[in-house]
Write a structure and sequence with these properties.
It is a single chain. The protein is of the alpha/beta class. The chain contains 16 helices and 26 strands. Among the domains are: 155 residues, Rossmann fold; 109 residues, GMP Synthetase, Chain A, domain 3. The chain has an eight-stranded mixed β-sheet, with helices on both faces. Strands 16, 17, 19, 20 and 21 form a five-stranded antiparallel β-sheet that branches. A four-stranded mixed β-sheet has the order 2-1-11-10, with helices on both faces. Helix 9 links the parallel strand 10 and strand 11. The protein is globular.
């Protein structure tokens, strides 16, 4: 087994020139970086939302007032405060104000229904929630069966009518807050900043405990990777959901650390996105493959000036090679694939922005990040280049553990290494490739089949816009390969044609036996296709068919 020094030496020989292999991590929190930005660039625009621009001096004042209001309500260090909001300035204010007093941000997916919300609030023990007032009915429906004591709401435009008197208004609380906020001693290395709940795409949602050091370190690691990043000059197109770790780090935290301007979009809509690029000239566009696919297929792209964009990082889901190549050709933007997880704050790998990269790879580990591939049987043997196994990560961005889940924590964190559950391989140059999720691997007739390989082939077909492959139950093979496909507008394709196309490019056991055409694919809020949903849907169909046959 290679030791850590040997692991690092293996990829350092090809580490991107100009990017440090190690960084200094100051004893700071994200609110500390906001103070610094407000002092250095007080009139620099921090946030742009619906045409309104908020400078850093004002953002700092709003955070201070909101933090004082929360403290006046009795929120103290270590208390969990839920934050349920779309992308908007109030989210950024709440996110920083909660951390300012040493409390813990509980990230809430704003699309959660009552059952999911109830689980998250009970699991985290949050007694206070800050939310967009349109979400109040869902919160009210679970309040009595959760620890919630106080509901604080804000409006985006016209206030929601008919709210009861015991619901607090965020703007009024901040306006009425008086006095001086007491200094709160925070240990960045050990104190929690965020409970980042995993997406639940592979099972029950777990709360990843991210410390202040975790999230600060990751923002600084991403900054270092953007070689040539200019303090006080960058503009980030912020359409990734902030409640998700990817949007939290590459938009909010990166922006605050670098005194950048965040152009905030509450949701992904291609027309609004193109207008924002044309109007505000963002330099950075972190996104997910579905966003770049939408840009690639947007019929009016030539009407918009997209030349301001220097760098795009794609994450959260595999970036098909064809999508990356077409996007760069159409826009001139530099698009690279990265990788991360909720448990790692999230970014651990990325292709170089300035030098050698490998399309189809997730790139190399960020500064101070070690990665290795271990055997699937024992998880203890480091595999040589080219062999697929489980990807393990060690670095300052790796979580403290799962909230109230010691057994899950012990499985995921072993001897300082985080076991990702993703199957990967590393090449001789130290570049890593995600083969698939352990739980997404299809075992058909004794063969191990990785969906991503088949999806890459499908994306090469000129008629296919989106595709996902999943294993579905099969009496004979155990599982069989099924492809779910969204065609480009005006395109036509049959199941037989898809199968024949795949047969010309894949070994026979990898070829889909079933093909289903859809108008859209089920996705998480950040754009990751819900493969588990498709598998469950198929199992239900088969169970219903079997029941009907038996009657």
């Amino acid at each position: 087994m290679l030791d850590e020094k040997q692991l690092k030496e293996r990829w350092l020989k090809n580490y991107p020139q100009g990017i440090p292999a190690s960084l200094e991590y100051p004893n700071k929190t994200m609110p500390d970086f906001l103070v610094e930005a407000a002092e250095k660039c007080p009139q620099r625009t921090a946030l742009i939302f619906a045409g309104v621009q908020i400078p850093y001096a004002m953002l700092h004042a709003l955070v201070e007032k909101t933090a004082l209001a929360l403290y006046s309500l009795g929120v103290r260090k270590g208390d969990r405060v839920a934050l349920m909001a779309p992308n908007c300035p109030q989210y950024v204010v709440g996110f920083l104000a909660i951390q300012k007093i040493g409390a813990v941000v509980v990230q809430v997916n704003p699309m959660y229904v009552e059952r999911e919300l109830e689980h998250l609030l009970n699991d985290s023990g949050a007694r206070v929630i800050i939310a967009y007032d349109a979400f109040y009915p869902r919160i009210a429906n679970v309040k009595d069966v959760t620890p919630l004591e106080q509901i604080i709401v804000f409006s985006l435009g016209q206030p929601a009518p008919g709210l009861p008197d015991d619901v607090l208004r965020a703007d009024q609380l901040a306006m009425e807050a008086q006095g001086q906020l007491p200094a709160v001693e925070i240990d960045p290395q050990n104190d929690l900043a965020v409970l980042q709940y995993t997406g639940g795409t592979t099972g029950i949602s777990k709360g990843a405990m991210l410390t202040h050091r975790n999230i600060v370190a990751n923002a600084l690691q991403v900054t270092a990777w953007f070689n040539g990043c200019r303090y006080g000059e960058e503009t980030v197109l912020s359409v990734l959901p902030f409640f998700h770790s990817y949007g939290m780090t590459t938009c909010v935290n990166f922006g605050i650390v670098n005194a950048a301007t965040l152009v905030i979009l509450p949701r992904f809509e291609i027309e609004a996105l193109m207008q924002a690029i044309d109007t505000y000239k963002p330099t950075l566009f972190p996104g997910v493959p579905t966003m770049y696919i939408a840009v690639n297929n947007y019929p009016h792209l030539s009407r918009y000036d997209v030349s301001s964009i220097r760098y795009c990082i794609s994450g959260s889901a595999p970036l098909p090679v064809e999508v990356a190549q077409k996007f760069e050709k159409l826009t001139g933007g530099y698009l690279v694939e990265g990788y991360g997880l909720s448990e790692t704050s999230p970014v651990t790998h990325c292709n170089s922005m300035i030098g050698f990269r490998k399309v189809g790879s997730i790139g190399m580990p960020l500064p101070d990040t070690l990665a290795r591939v271990v055997d699937l049987e024992t998880g203890t043997r480091t595999l040589p280049p080219g062999e697929a196994g489980e990807l393990c990560i060690k670095g300052p961005q790796v979580m403290k553990g799962y909230w109230n889940m010691p057994e899950e924590t012990a499985l995921a964190l072993r001897n300082g290494w985080f076991y990702t559950g993703d199957i990967a391989k590393m090449d001789e140059d130290g570049f890593f490739y995600i083969v698939d999720r352990k739980k997404d691997m299809i075992i058909a007739g004794g063969f191990n089949i990785y969906p991503r390989e088949i999806e890459e082939v499908l994306f090469e077909h000129p008629a296919i816009m989106e595709a996902v492959v999943a294993g579905v139950p099969d009496r004979y093979r155990g599982e069989t390969v099924k492809a779910y496909i969204v065609l480009k507008e005006g395109a036509s394709l049959t199941e037989e044609e898809v199968i024949a196309y795949c047969r010309s490019k894949l070994a026979a056991y990898k070829v889909p036996r079933l093909v289903e055409f859809r108008s859209e694919l089920p996705k998480t809020a950040v754009g990751k296709v819900l493969r588990r949903f498709l598998r469950e849907e198929e199992a239900q169909k088969q169970a219903a068919a079997a029941a009907e046959q038996n009657t």
